[in-house]
């Protein structure tokens, strides 16, 4: 989603940027660099004075947090014994120095960690967050930090026409017929898919049905253009596709699809749509799904009210 590790007080053994690598951690035994065993994670030196280590992460988009995973994969004799997570809301573009002086509030209290484990913590707070600070006690290594939640769009930054289905705007997959080869959530990610593995792909159907995915839009809007991107799907592209409002009206009648192609279709809606269903026939894969449109005044007002309410303490 475009997050970054803004700063860390120490990264002697392994770089802080590894915390947010999208792939799962890896480890090769007896692989030594000039600072020792190479770890796919963030690792600080052994602390010889009181205190603890920390790293600050800017989230890809502002949002309400639901769950945090502190993954200590492959860190066994060198993982932190405890961790906590703080959050803050600074909507502009603060520097690392400004973030160090920010007002932080607790998100996850100081909690015990297990080594070589995806330590999962539910987040009870419903406040809007732009940055998190991972604190480890007293030192050690963490392979990955995963911050799961619901993106909340800043209505002042929303253009007249934008992707209503995009995950970064608050669009979300609510259901799908099949997730065998690839998660349907990847359909809504920013940017172009780099490989077939970054899209949604279903198993081969051996019946008379078809596959589908349902998407809740960021807000009730008026779709104007739909993009069906089959990039990288060549021998497994769907034969055709259809897009409907979830409550019935068809936005895009069945259209034939070509392999490895970004298809764009003009559509019209006579009333706001808050969720859509993409049907593919009969099965196959798709890289991205976009629903470009506008927001009626009431939808914009509702987004602004939510944005403001979530900032309240």
TrEMBL record:
Domain of life: Bacteria
PANTHER family recorded: ALLANTOICASE, INACTIVE ALLANTOICASE-RELATED
InterPro entries referenced in this protein's UniProt entry, alphabetically: Allantoicase (IPR005164), Allantoicase_dom (IPR015908), Galactose-bd-like_sf (IPR008979)
Membrane-crossing segments per the record: none
Enzyme class: hydrolase
GO annotation (BP), single: purine nucleobase metabolic process
Name recorded for this polypeptide: Probable allantoicase
GO molecular function: allantoicase activity
EC number of this enzyme: 3.5.3.4
Keywords, comma-separated and alphabetical: Hydrolase, Purine metabolism
Pathway this chain belongs to: Nitrogen metabolism; (S)-allantoin degradation; (S)-ureidoglycolate from allantoate (aminidohydrolase route): step 1/1
NCBIfam families: allantoicase
UniProt record similarity statement: Belongs to the allantoicase family.
HAMAP family: Allantoicase
Domain Allantoicase intervals: 2-151, 170-294
Species whose genome carries this gene: Actinocorallia herbida
Catalytic activity: allantoate + H2O = (S)-ureidoglycolate + urea
């Amino acid at each position: 989603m475009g997050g970054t590790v803004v700063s860390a007080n120490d990264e002697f053994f392994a770089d802080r940027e590894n915390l947010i690598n999208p792939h799962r951690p890896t480890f090769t035994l007896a692989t030594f660099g000039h600072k020792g065993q190479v770890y796919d994670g963030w690792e600080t030196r052994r602390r010889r004075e009181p205190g603890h280590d920390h790293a600050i992460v800017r989230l890809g988009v502002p949002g309400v947090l639901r769950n945090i995973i502190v993954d200590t994969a492959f860190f066994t004799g060198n993982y932190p014994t405890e961790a906590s997570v703080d959050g803050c809301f600074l909507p502009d573009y603060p520097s690392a120095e400004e973030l160090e002086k920010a007002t932080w509030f607790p998100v996850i209290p100081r909690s015990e960690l297990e080594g070589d484990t995806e330590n999962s913590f539910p987040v009870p707070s419903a406040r809007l967050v732009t940055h998190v600070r991972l604190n480890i006690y007293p030192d050690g290594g963490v392979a990955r930090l995963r911050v799961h939640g619901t993106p909340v769009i800043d209505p002042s930054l929303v253009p007249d026409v934008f992707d209503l289905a995009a995950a970064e705007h608050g669009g979300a997959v609510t259901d799908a017929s099949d997730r065998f080869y690839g998660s349907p959530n990847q359909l809504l990610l920013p940017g172009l898919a780099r490989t077939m593995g970054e899209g949604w792909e279903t198993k081969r159907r051996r019946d008379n049905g078809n596959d589908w995915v349902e998407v809740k839009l960021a807000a009730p809007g008026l779709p104007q253009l739909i993009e069906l991107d089959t990039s990288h799907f060549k021998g497994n592209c769907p034969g055709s596709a259809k897009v409907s409002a979830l409550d019935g009206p068809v936005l895009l009648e069945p259209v034939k699809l070509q392999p490895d192609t970004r298809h764009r279709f003009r559509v019209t809606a006579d009333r706001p749509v808050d969720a859509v269903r993409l049907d593919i026939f009969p099965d196959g894969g798709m890289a991205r799904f976009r629903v470009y449109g506008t927001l009626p005044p009431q939808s914009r007002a509702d987004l602004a009210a939510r944005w403001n309410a979530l900032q309240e303490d």
